[in-house]
Amino acid sequence: MSGDLKRFMARGLCFAAVWLAMLAALNHFYVRTNGYKSLDCTFKFYLVPDGIQVANLGSSHGEYGLDYSGIRGVTGFNFALSGQSLYSDLQVLEKFADRLAEGCTVIIPLSYFSFVQARDHNNQHVLYYRWLDYGSIQNRDPVEYVRFRLLPVINAGFNLKYLIRDKKAVEFHYIPSMLGDNVEEFRKYARLHLQYCRDLMHEGGYEAFNRENLEGIIRLCLERGFRPVLITTPYTRYYNELFSQEFLDGFHATISDICHRYGLTYLDYSHDPRFAETLEWFVDSDHLNDKGRKAFTEILLKDLGVI
Predict the structure, then answer these.
(1) 154 in a domain, yes or no?
(2) CATH code of the domain covering residue 50
(3) Where would I find the H helices in the chain?
(4) Does the model's pTM come out above 0.70?
(5) pLDDT confidence tier of residue 171, bands split at 50, 70 and 90
(6) Which among 86, 80, 96 is positioned nearest to 133, based on CA atoms?
(7) Beta bridge partners of residue 232, listed in sequence order
(8) Range of the domain at 89
(9) Tell me: the pLDDT tens digits for 234-284?
(10) DSSP-assigned letters across all residues of 183-197
């Protein structure tokens, strides 16, 4: 190897080292911004307390349906994320089981499409790189791991602005009520959400996989001395009217079989008249708003004897 080539390679390595050092420094400051921490509603997983007495898993119905902040004397935590599958529920519970107190009530929300949801719709798995163990992530990829876990500044784009002007605090966004009391808008959104759910299940064939993960959650709870409870959160009548009795019977038959096998309680609030017609408690046709979730959380915890 000639001297010129050696010098060229040495310079290249020096430039690469300097570039990586600058990137690492930029990343160091970026991940500490409140703007970054506010992305994707996942920073809450860095704030999980010890001694949790009641917790819930679930997708958006769990995320928007439960709020323990106003419950005195009870340590609660909401582990739900929009689009979260039963597989991810199981991985989340396994990761944080040590934070749950003995006898903790673990609420497992089941939506109408929980058993038929595709494994990784819309690349949902990328949300979990930030805080879940690499081996627990579906469709994991080492390049994605670098982009989303080790050096997320690579994907920052416009969010680099937070290095210059940061948010005042970490924000956990909930969608505000957007339909008011417009019945036709509730019906319209119900149809749109139904189509979204059908898109979730477009590949089909996931019933056994999802049921297996639900039963895995239940077994883990029982092994660790937790109290698993299955629920369905409240929906408006305009959402429920889109589903045939045959569909609902099949959904409930699956849950009934699981409850019988493990001796569990199932609380179904999907058609609860206290909520079904009370549109001011909903963001849309099937998700509770701030007022609705506070009311529902209190009702649920009373029904469970937690408060």
Answers:
(1) no
(2) 3.40.50.1110
(3) 3-30, 34-37, 60-65, 86-96, 142-145, 183-200, 207-223, 237-240, 245-262, 273-276, 290-303
(4) yes
(5) confident
(6) 96
(7) 268
(8) 42-138+176-303
(9) 999 999 999 999 999 999 999 999 999 999 999 999 999 999 999 999 998
(10) HHHHHHHHHHHHHHH
